[in-house]
Amino acid sequence: MTIAVGANKAGRREVLGMAIGPSEAETFWTDFLRKLARRGVKLVVSDAHEGLKAAIAKVLNATWQRCRVHFMRNVLAHAGKQGRRVVSAFIGTAFAQENAPAAHAQWRQVADQLRPRAYKLADLMDEAEMDVLAYMDFPQTLRAKLHSTNPIERLNGEIKRRTEVVGIFPNEAAITRLICAILLEQNDEWAVQRSRYMTLETIATMGDDPLTSLPPVAAA
């Protein structure tokens, strides 16, 4: 199951799409993203799916942001139990920088410092630098909401909880109906929330199109 959620031109979160299929396949992602292309996507936030990355390059004129949270889990697996806290703090200094050039410079410095004792970890940092720090090229007021798939995790959790209550579904259509009902409920809730997810002013800073949507895409 794949769900796309974004911020619409009014600054409110919105469910953009849902599909059930082989989420590792580029053909699946290509078809899914074509349905989102008309929304003016500027940034896609997701886990490191190779098929999705290839489809983004083919279908969307958009930047890909690798989920920072999931990357940290992957990279800390190479740090050992005793070193995880220190490594996390070191890498976090790159995220704390005020602009993209400073973040990239700090990232490379941290990788070089770690390389003698943890070369695999440093190699992962080298490979992921551009993708994990992609959000730094966006306005500072938006960055906290662009670097991970966390905004969609609560929704994924609710879908998992509701489907586990049912247990066994007779066919794919049955589970699709339930998931769509959950998504409609969530969409309605977001539409009437008093506070906007993003202010109109921050959306306007995106550049040439103030009606830009910014969907984090996550596979569950």
From TrEMBL:
Signal peptide: none annotated. The keyword DNA-binding applies. The keyword rRNA-binding does not apply. Pfam families: Transposase_mut. One of its GO terms (molecular function) is transposase activity. Keywords: DNA recombination, DNA-binding, Transposable element, Transposition. It comes from the Bacteria. Required for the transposition of the insertion element. Belongs to the transposase mutator family. This is Mutator family transposase. The gene is tnp.
